[in-house]
C-alpha cells in the first residue's frame, strides 16, 4: 500500500502528470528502429529521431530515379550498352540479367520497327523495360563476369542425369537420342557428339489422354514411336518437373510418368546383358537453366532459342548446332510465335540434346 500511495503521488502532481509529464507540443522520443527509403527501398536506415530521417531522405539515394538514364553512365559506357542492345540477337540478349524470355524479343521487335536505340532513355519505351529494370540490365551488360562465374556452378552432372553412369562413357558417346513426351505426341532429336543433327522429328499419339486410360492403346502408340527411333549410345528421356502440389495437373503427371516408364522398358531392351544403362533421365529444369529459360521455378518456351540455332546454322561457318539442309527446309516455318502448335516438344528434344553435350564439356 505504501508503494502504491507514493507512486500515485509521483504520477499526479498539481493536477498534472509528473512522472510521465511532457510539455505540450513536444514529440515522443523514438526508440531505435529501422526505416526504409520509400523511393528506392534499398537502404535500411537506423534512426533515433526525425532529424536523422529527414537528412537521409534528402540524400542522393532517393534522387537516383529522378536522374536520366544517360546521365548515370559515361559516354564510353553508353556506347558499350547501345552497341549490344542494337546488334545482339535474341539469344545473346537472353544472356543478360533480366532479359530472358519476352524482354529480349521485345527489344528486337522494337528496334526492327523503330530503328536502333539512339540513347539509353529510349530503352524504357520497350514493353516490360522500366527504369529500375533498365538500370539492372545496363549494369549487367557493363559487368557480366560475376554472373557467368556463378552460372557455371549451378548445374552438376550428378544432379541432371539419372541413373548415374560413368562420366567417361557419357563423354565418349558418339551420338544420343533425346526424347520429350507431350500430351499428344513424342518428339526426338538424334545428335552427334559434334552437335550435328542426324535426325529430328515427332509422332502424334492418338491414344494419349483420350477418355478412359487403356494400357494396350498407350503401348501401341509408344511401340510405334520406339520402332522409328534410331540407334544411339544413349537415350535421354526428359524428366518433367511437375509437382504433386498441383492437383489439377495430376492426370497429366500420371500420363507423363506412364509414357516415361514404357519408354524405359522398350528402349531398355536394346541394352546388352551386364552393360551400363542406356536409357537415362535428364531434368527439364536443368535444361531450362542452361539456356536461361527459367523464370523462378517455371520453364519458358525455347522456341526462340531453337530458331536462332537454325538461323546460325544457315548463316555462320561455325554454328553452335549444325542442321542438315533438308531439316532446315522442313522446319523453317514450324515454330511461329503466337501459334497454337509451335512445336514445343520438337524444340525441347533438341535443346535437351544440346544441353547434354554442353554440360558434359564444362
Automatic annotation (TrEMBL):
One Pfam match: HHH_3
The keyword Oxidoreductase appears for this protein: no
Protein name per UniProt: Transcription elongation factor, mitochondrial
PANTHER family: TRANSCRIPTION ELONGATION FACTOR, MITOCHONDRIAL
Residues spanning the signal sequence: none
GO molecular function, one term: DNA polymerase processivity factor activity
Main location, first listed in the record: mitochondrion
Superkingdom, taxonomy of origin: Eukaryota
Biological process according to GO: transcription elongation by mitochondrial RNA polymerase
Keywords: Mitochondrion, Mitochondrion nucleoid, Transcription, Transcription regulation, Transit peptide
Family: Belongs to the TEFM family.
Cellular localization per UniProt: Mitochondrion matrix, Mitochondrion nucleoid
Family matches, as InterPro entries: RNaseH_sf, RuvA_2-like, TEFM
Role summary: Transcription elongation factor which increases mitochondrial RNA polymerase processivity. Regulates transcription of the mitochondrial genome, including genes important for the oxidative phosphorylation machinery.
One GO cellular component, as annotated: mitochondrial nucleoid
